Structure formats: C-alpha cells, structure tokens
C-alpha cells in the first residue's frame, strides 16, 4: 500500500550549492532591514511547499535545496538578530553620553573631510573614563579639526563620546557604521601620536603612499593616492568637487576596483616567481 503525502525521493543527485546565498541573504536582511525578514521567510516557505507538492516545479537535483530554503534563510536571520542582541559595552557607554573620555588605538581609515573638519575610523585598544580604564576593544569614528595622521598610526584621543543619530533625511547612520564595526562617535579636542610603533598595515600603507607620489606633481599625486589607497586627505577641494560634478567620485573610494588592482599585483607576482598555473 502506497503511503500518502508528499513524495520526497532523494535517490537522484542532490545540489545544495545555494545554501550559502540563502544564509547570506538571511543575515543581510536581518541586519539591514529586519522588517523584511518575514517576507523573506514567507517567500522561502512558498518555494518549499511548492517543491514538496509539485515534483516538476524545480529540477530534480535542486529539489532538496528548494525544500530547505526557508531553513537556511531562517538561520541567517537568527544569526543577525542574535548578533544585534549581543551587548556592546562601547555603544552602551556612548548612549549615556558621559562626557570626556580618553582612547588609545590605531587609525583604521584615511582622514576624510567632514562638516566638523576631518574624520577617521579608530580601532580602540583601551578607553579611560574619569581616570580609570573601563573597556577594551571596539571601533569609533573620530571627528577633529585637524587630523595629521595616517592609517596604522597609534594615537591618543581625548574627546566627548556619543551615539550616532538618525539624520533629518531618515538615514540611520548608526546602522551604516555598524557595518564597519563602529559603535560610537568621538568629537576630539586632542589627537596625538603615541610612540613610533606602527602596525604592518600602516607600514605598507606609508611605503605605498611614498612610492605613488614619487615623480608626480602634488595634484596628480593626490588623485593617484585617492584611486589606489582611497585617501583623499591631500586632494584640493576644487579638484574633489570636479570629481563630484562629473559623477566619478566612486573611483576615489575603496571598492571592487582596489580588489582588482590587488588581485592583478598578486597574479603577476606569482607569474614572476614562476608559480605553476594550477597553484595560482
């Protein structure tokens, strides 16, 4: 006697290639647009039920993948929500707006112009409040009138810490900064280097900066630095506005272009050392 119900035959080849895409989609939706999570799960459930009831809805080898679609999407959303629910001591401190704090850490991004003067990302090593160390780790965005620093510099920052606010246009700056693992803003009254020690990333950045500027006029060097390092701190204001008017500012930001450049350098370096094609 034949059993009633959906017939799930696993004897044909099974493909689960899309599990990572569904998992990543769940994480992305759960992080950037939580209200859309039910819609994603409902869509996955419809596909799953359809694959169970109609064998020809999807190719045989993809049938199990379609049936498990809501499971992978739900796991991705759960990961995002659990991450969001994890306490962030730095964000909690910033939300209290305690006033002046002292931070020590390393500059993680080139200084850029802002309405406050300049801004740069800082990876926090330690934070002091009222003369005692209260936490370690995390990231902040530092705003200062002058930032004569480079990526990799270890600095001591004194200033007021606060949480990012939602802009008048509705843009959630806090959520954007969370994608860069930054929890707070610091309006600095003092930013100064600490010691001469520099991380290896900073050393590579500095040497590359020097090499790019060799033999070029200042304006040309500023453009090359922006295209290769994403550093616009030395670019004249009129030149930067020209890029904005022409709609090509994206070439001066860290993007896929830089990944392609790095991949090309690595590829030709491997060819130079005669690495077999199968190992490149």
Which terms summarize this structure?
single chain; 280 residues; alpha+beta; OB fold (Dihydrolipoamide Acetyltransferase, E2P); 3 domains; 5-stranded mixed β-barrel; 7 strands; globular
Give the gist of this structure:
The protein has helices spanning 19-32, 37-53, 63-67, 69-85, 89-95, 173-178, 200-213, 218-229, 237-246, 256-272, and strands spanning 100-107, 112-114, 117-129, 132-135, 139-144, 153-162, 184-198. It is of the alpha+beta class and 280 residues long. The chain folds into 3 domains: 19-85; 89-198, Copper binding periplasmic protein CusF (OB fold (Dihydrolipoamide Acetyltransferase, E2P), Beta Barrel); 202-272, no CATH class.
Give the H and E element order: HHHHHEEEEEEHEHHHH
What is the 3D form? globular
Radius of gyration: 25 Å
Which structural class should the secondary elements be placed in?
Answer: alpha+beta
CATH homology-level superfamily of the largest domain: Copper binding periplasmic protein CusF
How many DSSP E strands? 7
- Count, helices: 10
Strand order of the largest sheet: 1-3-5-7-6
Give a structural overview.
- It is a single chain.
- The protein has three domains: 19-85; 89-198, OB fold (Dihydrolipoamide Acetyltransferase, E2P) (Beta Barrel); 202-272, no CATH class.
- It is globular, with a radius of gyration of 25 Å.
- The chain has helices at 19-32, 37-53, 63-67, 69-85, 89-95, 173-178, 200-213, 218-229, 237-246, 256-272; strands spanning 100-107, 112-114, 117-129, 132-135, 139-144, 153-162, 184-198.
- It has ten helices and seven strands.
- The chain has a five-stranded mixed barrel.
